[in-house]
Fold these 4 entries.
Entry 1:
Amino acid sequence: MNFQQPGTNPRETASAAPLVSVCMTTYNHEAYLSRAIESVLAQETTFGVELVLGEDCSTDATRSICESYAARCPDRIRLVTSAENVGWRANYRRTFEACRGKYVAYLDGDDWWSDPRKLQKQADVLESDPECGMCYTGALNFWQADDRTDPDHPTHTTDFESLLYSLTITNCATLARRDLIVRYYGEVRPEEHPEWLTDDAPMWLWFSARSRIAFLPDITAVHRRLPDSVSHSRAYRRRIAFCDSLMEISLWFDARYGTGRNRFRLERRRASVAWWVLSWNGGVREYLARWWRDVKRCPRLLLCPEGPGLLVKKILFRRDKNNRTNR
């Protein structure tokens, strides 16, 4: 792993640690990265802010963009990289570990901040309340394929049980205490869970279990939704796999940090999402195989009407589709 800090003395850097570090991981983001970086540089704060760029051997021009910005702003931007690709999880971790601020904000290389006072607003909250571990704001969703922007979640929650069922926290809208993130890694050890397809969901669930979370209603960030990403794939089986992963994370946290009483509700949510997607995609046999697997895993699902109800919908939809095709 290499740290590129052009013109910076390591001893001077250590003595001038900023209040906030921005952790930005990037891979093949050449079309989006400059906007993300510029939105960090545009932040208006009364304190120091550093940007730590974690570049993972992209196959496009992402590396050269990172190097260019690091050379232009050596006092504000540092580049973390290596000779070989390490994968998204290791890149996420090493970039965080290079952050020196009291607080850490996450911003992926394809997202951006829309409010130049985002960090100031959030830091003010955390500085005024030592019991608050993380502050997040509202965020818009930009669908790249459709050039469409969707509004923020209609409701936001901060308590553990609500976030188990529906995580309303957008990663690029957060600011958290660095020492708590260190505790999260030591306690949860996400690297031991390759079945978890995201690192931010377990982190924020842990924060809601171990500290207090604050929410600001201001819209400060935009989450870019790319086609065929892990979380928003066009392939229906990949979409199901990601939703399964989110519910597996929630089930794990409920068992270890909650009372376990949410298990059936989470199992039902997990199954219903898969059944709904399969009611539109795949064959009847695939739907029945998934339904039976879920019922064996949680027998109480046998009593849930959505299982047979969505199967009927699927059969009728296929019949109607065949009739229209044969006309």
Entry 2:
Amino acid sequence: MKFFLLLVFLFIKVSPLLSADYIDKGFYIIDLKNKVEWLKCTAGQQWSDKEEKCIGDAVKLDQNEIKEANRLLNEQIDGDWRLPNRKELESLVCRECDGVKINTKLFPQTPAQPFWTSKRNWWSPKFFWSVNFFTGHSYGRFVPEKKLFVRFLRDR
């Protein structure tokens, strides 16, 4: 019995972002816990069913460019896509993952770099929060003119 419990614990510990919380729907991922749907690829990339990966180059955007990219996305793909808040984006961090701190089976070709959130830093409102998928940490130190990577989501 102890051996069985140890195996269960190890499975839970080593299984980053258990698939029970996520449903893969091709170009997007349903996040059951947060009740949102994430684009599988970083802004600038496109999901390829044929190649089963994100193709193209991820692009860094500033806050003004994000507004335009978001407008274009909502015209091209049904739904009210938006920038995630800090809590939503932090929920994708996988501390146990090697390399990039996100489940790359769900979110392939994610750069191990900071990504924008929609939240301003309450201590210094001229700065926005970001989540860094290299370290897994959040930082509230980027001005809107800074270019960072972006992952969009929509509410379910």
Entry 3:
Amino acid sequence: MKKYLLASILLLSSLPAAQAAPIYVFPVANCAATYGKYHHDYPATDIQAKKGCAFVAPINGTVEDVNLKDLWSGKTNLGKDRGGLSVSIIGEDGVRYYGSHLSKVEPGIEPGVVVTAGQKLGEVGSTGSARGTKPHLHFGISYPTKPGDWKIRRGVLYPWKYLDAWKVGKDLSPVKAIAAAKEKASK
């Protein structure tokens, strides 16, 4: 019996260590998606994908804000309405992740719901100020603030290097960069 136990221990110890699941995932799943390294007047990006492609949680977290109504009007062009249908989560890393211009928000996605990395939150679309454009996901990374603070929620950090890493399965955390952005904003 000892011989078999020793053999089992030796066999198990020679196997490679299991890789932990990635902490971060690319926010568009199971679809071709591209994004440029530019955005108009604030730090964010637009991820181009077909309408209906899955917008997924880029990290485990808790849903913070959900907008289920597209109230945007070109006549008023209110900033708070520009995102159309949208979802933001506070990741377990303390960072806010925001996706907007969605065509649909998944049933059950509401403030306070705990989500896991890769869980579908909604579908890519062109609601809000993206009405009439090609479908895309507006993706913003920011620090948490009071609910409804749309100027911060839409993005305070250019996300490209994080998206580049997540797209190939590498974990790259925006935590330090977000802390620096928050510090700079407080001065």
Entry 4:
Amino acid sequence: MYNLDKNRLEEIIIPNLEARRNKKSFWFDGEWNTGKDFLEIIENCEKVLKDAGFSRGQRLVVMLKNSPLIPALSLAVWKLGGIFCPLNEKAGSDILKGTLDLIKPFAIITGRELPELENLWTCIQCGISDRTLKKFTGKTQPPESEDYAVIFSTSGTSGNPKAVPLTHGNLISNIRATKETVYPLNEHDTFLTVLPNFHSFGYTCATMLPLAIGAKIALVPSFLPPQQSVRAIAEAPTTVMYIVPAMLSFLLMSVEKGKIKSEILSRQSVICTGGDRLAPNIHKQALKLLGRDVMEGYGLTETSPVLCMNHDCETQHSGTSGPIIPGYEYKLKTRDGEDLPETEREGVLWAKGPSITPGYLHAPEITAERFDSEGFFNTGDYVRFDEDGYVSILDRVTDIIIVGGFNVYPQEVEKVLCEHPAVHAAVVVGMHHDINGEIPKAYVQLEEGAEANDREIIRFAKEKLAHFKVPRSVEFVKEFPVSATGKILRRILRERANNP
């Protein structure tokens, strides 16, 4: 039986693996491995790191696709008192260099050669199926706090890198609250671990949460090509899926086209999305194809990450991210940072609790901007609470379009556009206007085989929206620019709209 009443993650997870010593623990590349196999990988990694000179407070940067090495290296690093730092090797050399300058790693574990970094840092290359590291000698750096478990990189809406340290206490409290919120989750489950490990949603909810509650994981290197994920879901088989909306949309589309049997998705006890908004039509599509709905949650890297979560499909409010999970205090403020009355149900969400980062790494000025004098953290999201306390994310404060002094929430406009039978997905951004300041512009992706023109889409919107909310311009696209985790990069579309 798992025990979450510990101070460090390795103190929770290692006993769980011992309990599974002769039982299934992780599925990878079509095969099940035992807890004993897992423990041996951890021990091998720990020995190589220790021989390399790794010590307390040091940071190990890992840029690998999902594999047994990710959780094994995490645990080996923690056993040695260090900090695990997963990064996206495709983030771009400038962003990587800026992030590495903040983190100052003891060494970097990569899946391929990175010549632009090898002259600056100790780099060790390993394969996707490797079960240990090659021997090496690292470079000792000034130590950071041993309380830190993970340091994530996030660029937020600015595109500039920031390093977000999360403590063992942050992650344990978030795992505990998520376990209490989403039911049923238990040690008999098998979680699909396909979200990239450098994403806090995937790392915490799809990797560390199952290991902490004694459950099994099915490791898939990446979602593309999707056949690997489908194989894991069907053959492991999985029972819990934490994925981003883009992944779910692809899976549902594959069911609709007959490429995937609906049974492999409908038998999941939990399908939960996060990391981006879940389009309203996805709920309808899931009900139609699977005979069941899917759940939605919300959070940020800085909140470890879950902040809101629907409990289950029966009690959820579709279109919301669920209520605030246990352990958080919250309040609403204006965009200018002024406290709103407790009776107000709409505003910028600020949160406080044991899952929130202690601050940005070596960036006191950014920390001061995002935390108020009472320790509340500014999520940067404009939200609305319904009568039952369920949260709807209206938009990022930076995404809100102000038309002649009126607020336009892109998500509201996008929801209406997606009601058009020819529209598969829509993204609305603000475009500069000399008189009104901004006007809405819509980027629209049509359903396969469907046809529509801009005038038709605008006319449809006029029938359902106030005049100032109606897009003045519509551009049709085959696909949206997305991040490595499938999140639509609105910043890129906004730049495109304002710099044609």
